[in-house]
Amino acid sequence: MAGESETLGLHAAKLGKRFSSKGGDVQALEEVDLEVKQGGFMSIIGPSGCGKSTLLRAFSDLVEPSTGEISVNGKMPAEARAAREFGVVFQSPNLLPWRTVLRNVTLPLQVMGVDRPTRNQTALEMLELVGLGSFARHHPWQLSGGMQQRVAIARALSTNPSVLLMDEPFGALDEITRDRLNLELMRIWGQLSATILFITHSITEAVFLSSQIAVMSSRPGRITELIDVNLPYPRNTETRDMPEFYELVIEVRRALVEASAVAS
Amino acid sequence: MTTEGVTLAEEPDSKDSGKRLPIGVVLTPTIFFAAFLAIWELAVRLGDVQVLMLPAPSVIWSRFIKDFGLLVELAVNTGTEAGKGVLIGSFIAIGLAGLVHGIGWLNQGLLSYSSTVKALPVVALYPVMTIFFGVTSKAVVAMVAVGVAPIMFTFASRGFSGTSEHDDLMRSISANWRIRMTALVLPRALPYVMAGLRTAVPLSIIISIISEYFGGSVSTLGAYIRRESTMLHTVQVWSAIVMACLLGVLVFVAVSLLDRYFLRWHSSRRET
Q1: Is B190 close to A99, i.e. CB distance below 8 A?
Q2: B270 Cβ under 8 Å from any chain A Cβ
Q3: Could you say which of A64, A190, B106, B189 is the most buried, measured as most Cβ atoms within 10 Å of its Cβ?
Q4: What is the pLDDT of residues A90-122, one digit of tens each?
Q5: What is the pTM of this model?
C-alpha cells in the first residue's frame, strides 16, 4: 500500500525544457522538482510566460522535456496518455464547434471504442455533474464561455481519469463566473477525488482551490516556493471570508513578488 | 451583436427571432432591373431595331415561355454535365489535398502548379479533351473537372493546413487517424471547401456552355445557342441565354443554401 501510493500522483524531478528558435534558446523550465500526491490539488502560480503551462504540457505529453524525469501515476506521460490516466482541460474550452455538446463530451469515449448507447449515457451523466444536462443537444456557440468550459470539464472527466490537468481553465472568464466555477470544481472534485494539477495566475483562485501551491519564477522557469494551504475541505463561499484565507493570499502574493525579484 | 464565445446566451433558442432583410436590398436592384428592361424595350421599338439584331425583352420572354419545356431539358443536361464535372474535379482535388497535406514539398509543388493552371484559359484545352473522349458530353464533363480541380485543390489544401488547439485535444485523448480525420480535419476544412465551391460551381456552368459551343451532346444549352445563332434565330438564342442565367442563379442559390446548412456552426454564418 505504501509502495503503491508513492508511484501514484504526479512526479517531476530535475525537469528541464529548452526551446530553440531563431531568436535564440529559451530555458522554459529548469530543475523543476514537483510532487502531487494522489488525490491532491496542486496549483501552479506564476507570472505570464514563466513556463507553468509548459510544465503542464510536459505532464500531458504535449511537450517533450529536454532533461529530467517525469511521471503520471508511475508511468511516462506517453504511456499514461495511452492508458487514459489523465484528462486535460485547456485554456480555451476547445470544443469542436460542429459537434453538439453531447457529442463533444462523447469524443474521448468514441476514441476508446465505447459503443454509442454507453458513451451517450456516460456523457449525459458527466453533463449532469457539471449542471448542463439539459444542454446536450445544443451547439457550443449557443453556450456562454463559462458553460463551454464546464462542457470541457465534463469531456475531460468522461473517461473517468484519476488525474486532471487543467491549464488556466477559467483565465478567460469574468470574476463572477470564475468564482462560481471554482465552487463547482470543488464540488466535483469532492465527488471524484481525482489528483488535480491546476495552472492559474489568480492568487485567490489558487488559495481557494488548492491543497498546495507551487510558486514559479520566470526565465528560467523554476519553482521558488511551495505553500501548503491548510484550509478545511469542503470549501465553500464562507472559506473566502476566513482570516486564514486572507493570510494565505498575502503569503502567496509575497512569494510571487520574491519570485519575480529573483527573475529581474 | 454576439461576439465570439464570451457573451452570455442563456436562452439559446431566442436568437433567430426578429431577423428581417432590409427592404432596400431587394427593392433597389429590382427597380434598376425593371428600368433597364423598359429602356431596352423602348429603344428597340422606337429605334425600329431589326429582330435579327436585338429582339425586345417582351419578344424574348414570350419565346422563353413557349419553349420553356425544351429550355428546361437543355438546362438540365448542361447542369448535369457541370455537376458531374464539379463532383469529379472536387473529389480528385480534395482527395489529393488530403493525401499530400503534411508532405511539404509535394503540397507546395501542387499548389504552385494549380495556381498556374488557374491563370490559364482552360477551355482552350477543349479540343484536346475531344481527342481523349470524342465529341461527347464526357469531354464536357472532363473539361469542367479540369477547370474546377485546381480551384478546389487550392482551397482544400488551405483547409487541411490549418492547425488549432483542437490538435492538442486530439493528441491528449490519443485519437487515431480515422477519428482525427472525421472529427477534426475534414470539418475544419469544410469552410474552405465551401468557399471553393462558391467559385467553382458558377464557373462550371460557364465552362460547360463554352465547351458545348464546340460540340458534345446536341441537347444542351451551349449546342442549342450555337445552332440557333448560325440559323440567325436571334430570339431563340436570347431565350436560351435567359435560361442559362437562371441556371447560374439557381446553382448559386443551391451552393449558398448548402453552405448555410453545413456551416451553421461556423461563427461567420451567424451574424445578422
Answers
A1: no
A2: yes
A3: B189
A4: 999 999 999 999 999 999 999 999 999 999 999
A5: 0.81
Determine the Cα–Cα distance for residues A58 and A52; give it in Å rounded to an integer.
Answer: 10
- Name residues whose C-beta falls within 8 Å of residue B218's C-beta, 6 or more positions apart in sequence: B227
Asked if the C-beta of B68 comes within 8 angstroms of chain A's C-beta atoms, the answer is no
- Of B51, B103, B90, B101, the residue nearest B203 (C-alpha): B90
pLDDT number for residue B19: 54
Q: Which helix (H) or strand (E) holds A222?
A: strand A222-228
Confidence of residue B248 (pLDDT cuts 50, 70, 90): very high
Q: What is the DSSP letter of A41?
A: E
Domain coverage including residue B137: 56-269
Can you say whether the dihedral through the CA atoms of B137, B143, B148, B150 is positive or negative?
Answer: positive
- Give me the residues of B, 165-194, that contact A with CB < 8 A: 165-166, 168-169, 171-176, 179, 183-184, 187, 190
- Supply the pLDDT for residue A6: 54
Which pLDDT score, from 0 to 100, does residue B270 have?
A: 62
> Is pLDDT above 60 for B15?
no
> Is residue B147 domain-resident?
yes
For the CA atoms of B249, B253, B255, B259, what is the dihedral angle to 10 degrees? 150
Interface confidence, given as ipTM, is 0.89
In chain A, what are the domain boundaries? 2-85+162-263, 97-160
CB contact (8 A) between residue A97 and residue B265: yes
Report residue A97 as a C-alpha cell.
464547434
Q: Is the pLDDT of residue B140 over 50?
A: yes
Superfamily holding A2-85+162-263: P-loop containing nucleotide triphosphate hydrolases (3.40.50.300)
Tracing cell 465505447 back to the chain, one arrives at A114
